[in-house]
UniProtKB/TrEMBL annotation:
Its biological purpose: Involved in the maturation of [NiFe] hydrogenases. Along with HypE, it catalyzes the synthesis of the CN ligands of the active site iron of [NiFe]-hydrogenases. HypF functions as a carbamoyl transferase using carbamoylphosphate as a substrate and transferring the carboxamido moiety in an ATP-dependent reaction to the thiolate of the C-terminal cysteine of HypE yielding a protein-S-carboxamide.
Organism: Afipia carboxidovorans (strain ATCC 49405 / DSM 1227 / KCTC 32145 / OM5)
Record GO terms (molecular function): acylphosphatase activity; carboxyl- or carbamoyltransferase activity; double-stranded RNA binding; ligase activity; zinc ion binding
Reaction catalysis annotation: an acyl phosphate + H2O = a carboxylate + phosphate + H(+); C-terminal L-cysteinyl-[HypE protein] + carbamoyl phosphate + ATP + H2O = C-terminal S-carboxamide-L-cysteinyl-[HypE protein] + AMP + phosphate + diphosphate + H(+)
Protein name per the record: Carbamoyltransferase HypF
Gene Ontology biological process terms, A to Z: protein maturation
Similarity remark: Belongs to the carbamoyltransferase HypF family.
Amino acid sequence: MKRSAVRPAEAVQTVEVRVRGRVQGVGFRPTVWRLAQDHGLDGDVCNDGEGVLIRLRGESALIGHLVAELRTNPPPLAQIANIEISPCAEALDAGFRIAPSLSGVPRTEIAPDAAICPACAAEISDPRARRYRYPFTNCTHCGPRLTIVRNVPYDRDATTMAAFPMCDDCAAEYADPADRRFHAEPIACPACGPQLRLVRFDGGAVPRFPDAVDDIAAAALLIACGEIVAIKALGGYQLACDATDPDAVARLRGLKRREAKPFALMARDLDMVRRYCSVDAQEEAVLLSREAPIVLLESSGREKLPETIAPGQRMLGFMLPSTPLHVVLFQSLDRPVVMTSGNVSDMPQVTDDAEAVALLAGIAPYALVHDRIIANRVDDSVVRVMGSDIRILRRARGYAPAARALPPGFEAAPELLAFGPEMKATFCLLTEGRAVLSQHQGNLEDAATYDDYRRNLALYRDLFAHRPDALACDRHPDYLSTKLAREHARDDALPLVEVQHHHAHLASCLADNGCAREAPPVLGIVLDGLGYGDDGQIWGGEFLLGGYGSVARLGCFPSVAMPGGARASREPWRNLYAHLVTAIGWRECIAEFPELPAIQRLASKPCTTLDAMMRSGTNAPVASSCGRLFDAVAAALGLSFARQAYEGEAASLLESHVCRETLHDEPLALAYRFGLIAQTQKPATFDLAPMWRSLLADLAGGVGIPVMAARFHKGLAVALADMAVMLARREAGTASFDTVALSGGCFQNFILFEETARNLKERGFSVLSHSAVPANDGGIALGQAVVAAARMIEAGTDRRKGN
């Protein structure tokens, strides 16, 4: 639209437009500039501590059109939280300009790191372009964000790119509102940006390959020759080797001390992925998305990778190149590559160059390194398509720290900080009606992870200028996150809300689905490994009725001892013994099934000592844990008897062995039956004896493990739905419900989730489940935050009512 020569005075207005959300460093100001030019509006736009401030003078209708276009078609990486329009009394010059950033209290959002965009990918592949094969190419629509930021407003000086002054060419692009690199803070080129080189960690000479055009091509040749190469990537170092080379994969496993946990894979493109896995439309879309996560896929392609990639699993985790470095690397590779975190198993991913030499030199002789500092460690995200939706299993690169709007009813939520769990640690900030969930950080029992967690807490509070009015944490007194929350509450004189673990799971699912604070109660089926219960015992298989503010425990799995305490979580045979003793009795098991290998192996264990521990409760806490039930069944089937190499291995192997034909085609009568007992009492529970007797009989009869795994999953899903029906009938007179929410790490099991959801829907329930927030402990911090907020809002409402 051309600028009007004459405008009636009464049609002209001057306004100030405040835009909050993820609006800095994403090309928002040039978008406003172009729209203002198109609509013939005067004024300016700038970044400040609250987001983007736009001042406009022109016809009211045209201003309305500009604001409407911002709402409906913002830049690709932008996420608008709200737009406020108010009168502006200042006189504005003719024309429209982009003004310098203003200082102030930061209230904007930092964008997640975004995968390389098509334009940049084409540029680094074009020999005529000045950024040909340059591994740090980016623009306003892609590239590093969280991994390089140190402060806000999000300008170059507040990032690790401050050390690289722009050359004249980059400066011209940076200053041109019509260029896609306008104010792209990480902008760089070979003349002025970070530099990459291939080195030997021991300082020795790097072999020269006549066919290698640069160090990246040389690294690709080393990988193709069977070497392990460390790569300084976006959010930390990675370790890469040829995924088709069994010797290289086995060597990486041994040196990294990663006994069996599946490796992540990277492929050049979808065609390469499809050589090994089936990929449906949803999986293709998320692989190609700007988040570019690892996607778990069925390994049903025409070609097979070595079993050592993912021992005992039917799924492979693939991702596509998300950075220019990875894109260029795969221009010289015709095979998939193991692309795993650069660390020794169970330690945080290495980000520091000196630390990389100290910790990775014994694993990878060679490394692709560069001179840009990684400000913030961020792992790769992991997703899986289940129930026709994309489910985030690990929320990190590409997703964090994107904020989520709080559900209706939380408008009065206080500024709040939730410290999260101990495993799969995250924390969550509530600020201005939004929830900011941190990236996945790992197990806080690891000292380096705990240090990183504390540093990230301070960083996020600075980035979001967050000064909480209250704190929230898990009720478990020994969690490091709980202890830290108590310290902060004491030192800062802030109220602390302790939230029961499984209530936080349920609340996280409700918030993930946008359920209103005052919505009717739902039944939460929350299944996981361990969580501290309201009665001081360990919970893990819970049926909770309620919402954000409170819940009632209507049902649970039976409480079974964990002989050895924490060792029972690592050694499945201990859970098998305790379950058989509790459900059937050890003497009866020996008498009825003396020839079963599982019974014979258990008989060789110190059963007398275990019996004494369970009788006295000495180092044998009882737990209503679904996760430990999975461990016990996996041990009985011989899939994971002595020791789990990683958390959840036994349950994962049990899922992977399910026979799909048995699951879908076999009569329901052959599924293992779980009895319901104590139906008139709270909590109701299951009788596991029928299930165990059927399973042991199948073992004795030589039934195949895949068939038995299917019968267990099928029977458990039916039992969960039957319990929901029974509880709905029992509570109909006092607290009726017609919606069931599924949460907890056990529901990341594809078979259990889909079978349970189907059974519940067939019985007339609406089903809520996780998608944008992990069902596992990675979503706990969000749940803690909304529970604490709901209680504080309700308490404030009661005070205003005089109650």
